[in-house]
Design goal:
There is one protein chain. By secondary structure, the chain is α+β, with helices and mostly antiparallel strands. The chain has a four-stranded antiparallel sheet with strand order 3-2-7-6, with no helix packed on it. The chain contains 13 helices and ten strands. The chain is extended. β9 and β10 form a beta hairpin. α4 crosses α8.
Amino acid sequence: MEADVRDLFDEDALFDPFDDGPDGDFDPEAAAQVTVGAPLTAEEAAPKAAAAPAVDTRTAQERFRDLLKETPGQRCVMLTLVDYAREPKTGAEMDVRTEELLRYGFSIYSPVVFRELLEEAGALRYMLLDDEGNEIAVDEAAGGVAGEADAQSGMDDAAAETVVAGSDVAVGAVSGAASSSARAAVGVAAGVVGAAVAGVADVATGAADAEPVLRSEQYFDGEETVELEFLEVADERPGLWVATPEGLEVVDEQDDAGEIRKLLAAEPQYLDIYHQILDFCCEEGGRSAKEIDRLVNDSPLLEEPRRYSGYFVGRLERKGALEWRGGWCTTQVGRDMIEEALAAAAQ
């Protein structure tokens, strides 16, 4: 005979959240002795004013250097992108170059985010152009240097107005926060009062406003034909990305060879290991981590303290002497270090 599970519990002992509890639990005298704090003063009760946003007083060079320190894994990509933009480049060209740099690596940043970070750091800027290809001044562009990234986010702003002939219906949109391009669309509505036809345009905010063109179309809503008039804004010339003088100053001050020399001088006991790895990875296509393991892991130099190949590979990569291209490859500056070492040994 099977037992009823309800027989295993004492219903009187179960907790009832709606039960007031047994008589006598509430003690009025004890409750009266509870100390209540003094009421807040007017100053204490007044809402706290929002703290003013911190002002970044760093120069563009300092912001860019700090960005490189904060993202060491993307340092090479960012420096290369700024150097690539010495001459103005389109967003598409910057995308292609970024994808090439990330071919053998991994990054949570998309090409657009890389440009946003570099723009915020003052290493890149976005140029807006007029119909003749001349750059529009920043004050005229209303801060549109960050516009390309905003445009890719979709329909951030709108600048279109649709007028329906023969009705009181007007559909419009107002541009929002500053961005250098916007995408506006107005849907179609049918009814007794008329309908609206969508107008789609890419608009550079603050740039020399393109003269809107009044167009008309006939729309049949199933019962009658309605003549519609709407404004259409012409496409604007896309902007270009270019490196700032401050960004190029940071790029030009990089001294990978000097950093590698400092690394080798700081650990002279491992000088031979570093040279072996650099020379070994000059092979076309590079070397795998396991191949480098077999090369140096059994060396007596790594016994005390115990070191492994990853210790040296990581340091050489951070200094720009090695890079991953489907295998660990010695960079040109790394090859220069080998030649420098051979020349020194020959003297």
